[in-house]
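Hi,

I'm pasting everything inline rather than attaching a file, because the server keeps stripping attachments. The sequence lines come first, and each chain or strand is labelled.
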Amino acid sequence: MRRWSLWVPLAVFAALLVLVAAGLLKPADRTVHSAMVGKPLPDFVLPPIAPGKAGLDSAAFRQGRPRLLNIFASWCIPCAAESPNLLRLKAMGVPIDAIAIRDTAPALAAFLRSNGDPYQRIGDDRQSTVQLALGSSGVPESFVIDGSGRIVLQHIGDIRADDVATIAAAVRDAR
Amino acid sequence: MTAEVGLAALWLAAALAALQVAMAALGLARARPEPAVAVRAIAIVQGALAALAMAALIALFLASDMSVRLVVENSHSAKPWLYKFAGAWGNHEGSMLLWVTILGLAGGAVAILERRLAERTLIATLGAQAAIALGFYAFLLFASNPFARLDPAPRDGLGLNPLLQDPGLAFHPPTLYIGYVGISVAFSFAVGALITRDVGPAFARAMRPWVLGAWIFLTLGITAGSYWAYYELGWGGWWFWDPVENASLMPWLAATALLHSVTVLATRDGLRAWTVMLAVVAFSMSMIGTFLVRSGILTSVHAFAVDPERGAFILALLAIYIGGALALFAIRIGTVRAGTTFAFVSREGGLVINNLLLSVILGIVLIGTLYPLVAASFGVQLSVGPPFFNKAAGPIALALVVSMAVGPLLRWRRDDAATLLDRLIWPIAATGFAGAALFVLAPPGLFPLLGLSLAAGLAVASILPLVGRNPWRTPLFTWGMVVAHFGIAVSLAGMACDSAYTAETLTAARVGQPVRVGPFVVRLDGIKPVIGDNWSGLEARLTATRDEATIVLRPQSRIFTDPVTTTSESAIATAWDGQLYTVLGQPDGQGRWQLRLWWKPFVTLIWLGGALIALGGALSLVGRWRRERRAAAREAYA
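And the predicted assembly:
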């Protein structure tokens, strides 16, 4: 073994120390940054799941009008909790589409009957593939999409009463 | 008063550790025997004083002495006594005191038990051990005093993190710490041997029981921690590649490699530099593990112990000890005589392959754990999760399984590749048969298929070293190897079954509504409120039916008051062929309840395998110890 190669472990360790010390001295950033904001919506085509309601594809978001995309499921309890606020957004003139995650038609129909139906179109995402492509980690989640199909806002978790104004403003500003 | 006794014991122990370092240095410089006697005696007293400090802290927690800050912050008088007891180390200061206590006791044990190592190397070893202890005493006394008082004393404490209020807490941290600290003894042996240039079979035999012991406890600690995460977090998974889990896995991987290379050094006097290097790396990994957990530099489920300033202190200790040892290695190892060489196809060769594969896995886990930190320093936020670790480490782990099947069937020094194939006929047949049978009956994915068939092959191969031998005359450490390798096969089979055949159902169920999961039909019978010592909550009654047999499960959702936290207590029913795992979620306000149900076939094999691995280690330890004692007796007789 060459003499200098014996120092390699020490050099690697020193590099590790510098790295860790740098990470330690930097102040911690606790906010969640969405990697999807500013990116175009990924391409997808989803079949319908609710009777009398069209399925959802990404082309629907490139028609010049900003829209709200809500990711939900009938088995998700916060989704039921946020539905009054979605209905308020609908009443304010925000067009809302949805992707139902790992759901069935009868369960979804019952959900819409008891919680109200703010949606124009609902796509059926049985395997969560579109949800994953969107970088969404759970339900409910909502995305504001501008008229050219670009994501301008990602809202993680249920939409509370005090979030309604922020989201309505984001839709208005996305024009 | 108890707190002051504890603090005084801690200061005295620190002073003795300083004296121990000085006496060891003096003894080595002058080559006189007097300091040696003193070093042994000091090491024993230092260990006793550290134990006294720990006993004082436990007494304070049991008495709920609310004038001590640590008790106030981590305990509550209404807590069950077991959690008061375990609460003594369920926090930063207490766990560091436990660390240094075990370190001190281990040093004392080396001083009492070690008789066969050259006296100079032993003194150097005890000196190195005291130097490590000194750093941690300083850390406790200057940056995390567990005995600090509060004036005025509050009426009651803030309570313990409810996730930690589990019987597992009483055993999990001490088990892991004994493992970490046992490795620190191996590290001290390596440093001692480097100082006296005495790297040889005698050194390896002195170090081996410590490595084995540490490895047994690490195995148990990891197995218990995995089961704890499995039932307490309520996520249904048994390994999350969380930074803190990785922090316990990395020393285990290094210790496993060390365990095998130290055998080569003890038996054949080969792999000298490599063994010393591994001892340093193994302890570096346990220090880095402690640092990652304590500094809060990485986000994890264990983030209950976060403090950057303390992180900086541990980092400084890390720089001194690891940097010092690596520098000593670079300076000294060139002057250590090269060991014996060997042919590639031989037991030694097999153990080198094992070491290389383990080191690669260790490298992957280390890179994956630290990569978010590297990325963050370039301004990119990311986390590295199971997809990376499973894809990168999985294939290498399977290669390791193959080498584990082959290795024990090889002869020392030189072997013949053609006859080796004859010896491998049964394992290869078992692998092929299991693979074909599974592919026809219930085809899993590629990885689980490989895992299950290799597990079958390894199970057969691991038993072969016993074939044709009288089981009563086979040395106990051979039994140990067989049991440990068989345990790996069992554990691997459990992992592969879990990933291939788990059935999951997530639903919102009404009372009386049946839900199907795997072979079970689960019905929600009702929900009722329940009250515990320091929590209240809701309990579901579930009836699970399979083939006419019914089981009742009671998963709970608990609300703790001190501090306010909700936890879900999963209910698990164990059958011979797997576990039904149930978690109660939130209500929807219309009479429906969120339920998560899993059927996990043969998942229990994972931990059963872990226990077998540890048992194998224990058999080896006893076997080696008996042989050493017999050899020592023979020497005394001659």
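Confidence is low (pLDDT under 50) at residues 300-305 of chain B.

If the labels don't parse on your end, tell me and I'll reformat.
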